[in-house]
Design brief:
heterodimer, A: 331 residues, B: alpha+beta, seven-stranded mixed β-sheet, six-stranded mixed β-sheet, 17% strand
Amino acid sequence: MRRYFARKVAIYLLTFFVAVTLNWLIPRFMPGDPVLRMLTRTSVSNPDAIAPMREYYNNVFGLDVPLWRQYLNYWAELLQGNMGISVWLFPAPVTEVILDAVPYTLALLIPSILLSWYAGNKVGALAARRRWLDNTVLPLGYALTATPYMWIAIVLAWSLAIIAGIFPVAGGYSFDLQPSWSLVFFNSLLQHWFLPFLSLFLVAFGGWAIGMRNMIIYELEADYANYLEALGAPRRLIRRYAFRNALLPQLTGLALQLGVLVAGALVTEIVFGYPGLGRLILMAIQNQDFFLLQGAFLFIVIGVLIANFVIDIIYVLVDPRTRTGMTGGAA
Amino acid sequence: MRTRPRYIAALFTAVLLATTACEGGDGGSSGNSSNGGQYPRNETLYTSGSAWGPPTTWNPIVPGYATGTVGLIYEPLFIFNPEKLELEPWLAEKGEWSADNKTYTVTLRDGVKWSDDKPLTADDVKYTVELGKIKAVPYSNLWNWLASVEAPDARTVKFTFSDPRVQEWENWLYENPIVPKHIWESRSEADITTHKNEKPIGSGPYVYQAHAQDRMVWKKKEGWWAEKALSLKVAPTYIVDIVNSSNEVALGLLTSGRLDLSNNFLPGVANLLKGDFKVKTYYAEPPYMLSANTAMLIPNTTKAPMNDVAFRKALAQSIEVKKIVEGVYGNIVKASNPTGLLPVYDQYVDQATVSSSGFTFDTAKAKATLASAGYRDTNGDGKVEDKSGKPISLKLIVPSGWTDWMEAARVIAEGAQAAGLNIVAEFPDAAALDDARTAGKFDLLLNNWTGVSNTPWTYYNYVFQMPVQAQQFSANFSRYQNQAAWELVQKLARTPSDDPAYKTTITELQKIQLAELPAIPLWYNGMWAQYTESTWTNWPSEASGAPKDFPSTWNNMWELGSIKMLTQLKPASSK
């Protein structure tokens, strides 16, 4: 058991190192110079002021040292929890900007991932044994899972928010409120949260439902199911075994899907003007904000790694075979 | 295990029901009743269109500050009245030039106070101007021609110039706000330009209320100086500026009555006006919007064949601006005058020059211009070659994602192709385009940093500024060098508007510009402003009796009189 986790942790650390390095590297391959862009944005009309301002800002952002030095500085700062100053939102520190946005993104991601996975698996399993359900869930699932996130988001925003007027169009909470521990505020948060959540939930739900349905049908035709049936075991018992077996690939699928879901959440946030990381990333790219981009991606990398690690642990818990494999096959 | 699904499903439905049930409040908030929110709807002005990111700084010295920081909080000495084309005293009671135009004396209003109740004095003005001695402060070039500033008493500030650039000075006067010395003087030189200045203390009609990722909220301050001095009172108690996310969001908020003023560019807004959405604009008819700046086609005059004036002329003649105005914009913009001077400067346009040397769309003429200048199609591909017979192939670059400009660039390329000029439109990333423009590594591009101001000097400075440097950040992207024109621009900077030389200098500049076409004016971009009347009425419009202030929340528009829009608004008759 310890060896298994030690190996996993080592792999995750390596992945983290590579991801952080790429994270540092990739923005620097983008064309353009962030300081120049900042000066352009502030449209400094004074030719004499440009050289000193540029030098000054290059120094502020630590861009005036050789690249290898910048890379080392980046690690040194990162380990102290400092992700630098945002170029686009100068002079706000990146950590502060991201911490403001992260709760919103997490509030969308965690419930939509977990609930869609749970509900998708349940409905998929049900669909595998009820013909009428199969005939409705299957096409619906295919349609949902093939829908681009932003499209379903736009459809929901248009129909439920603009036409029906049931839900708000944009924002994290009502524009006439200030955050407080009141019911009104919480209520407003919930209303603004619901549509972005729903669009993420629906798309993911379709995928899980189809996956589970196919898996169950496959498992019900497996030898052990036939054998059980021949022994005269009740259908219910066979299905339970099938469900348990079918769950394992779905769990692996969840680990694989995390990245896609995060990307989907970012797009959805933009459609709903939801104040999470999505819009920050988009604007950071457009404004060559290396530091904000690094910070946002770092958060995503850490999030996906942690989630994968948790899934690894769950895997051990739910699949006895992994456990036996780890203890060296006691049987 | 088996009971759990039902439990979760029940919980889920409960959440769903709860969210929909309590919708009565927010969803139907088009009514005027307050719905438990802290900002009563009928006292709150919702705006959007100027903030592109979360508010993070309230430092008025460095651009990038939250919407309204300059205008609502910090105020300049003067504001500019674009209708009358003159400065109006704001924090200053008056400003006077000495007879020899070497010194300028500002008298401050009596009784202006900062929001911490300390008086605003001549020392604050002196301090603010002297901040320009720090190189990283954007207006540091002021000190190239300003010699000294003195504060003989609490209400008088005396500026002595080494080179009195009247127009440039008046531009400075209304574009730069005064900051309180007693708060700023404790900050280090580096802090002046990097400080976030949370909870700003200003002299304006509003104070900081709250901010979040997607909004900035200002609250009205009691006892704003202009209430007494000018009998102006801002109407909204709260201003909530919503950070732009997408056109769809702005449109959705606007049509559902949750947004009062949208300064977003909304494509197809003409259709919206015709439909039953209760959306209004400044003009009821095309172009619907006031003109805010001139979109210019910038040829890189350091490269052949753009260095040839005949080529530039032919290019100008090949462009069908009407097609851009109607096809691309649906008539929400206006075709530019060949001089590029904004409609507010109409009185300075020299019609004789325009009719004798202005350019108009005429493909045949463009072909003739090219032929007579020696550009001929020698290899028979339908496109002209340069004078030595080498094929010409040029790129017109426009930022990717700027859909209106991308379409416009296609129209321009099409027109040029029809005249035999091989120009294609390309859409690089905005950052790459910025680099190309600053470094002069392009053939042709579009740019519109020619905003409305107190004087055409800013426009001609944009077109002719010299010397051309390795990197051009804000002006003369054509890298066009014409010493005579630049001297005229500098002369214009030094000429008071009431001097007859003012108009003649502008005329001379028009002549040079039309003869040389260092940049080709195409159309006037609009001062995008869409508003609804469900909560606030008496918006600026062309209608007689309506206010004529700029209906804009864009930064630097407040100083152009938008602040007065807030004092003109009236609550919609309460139901």
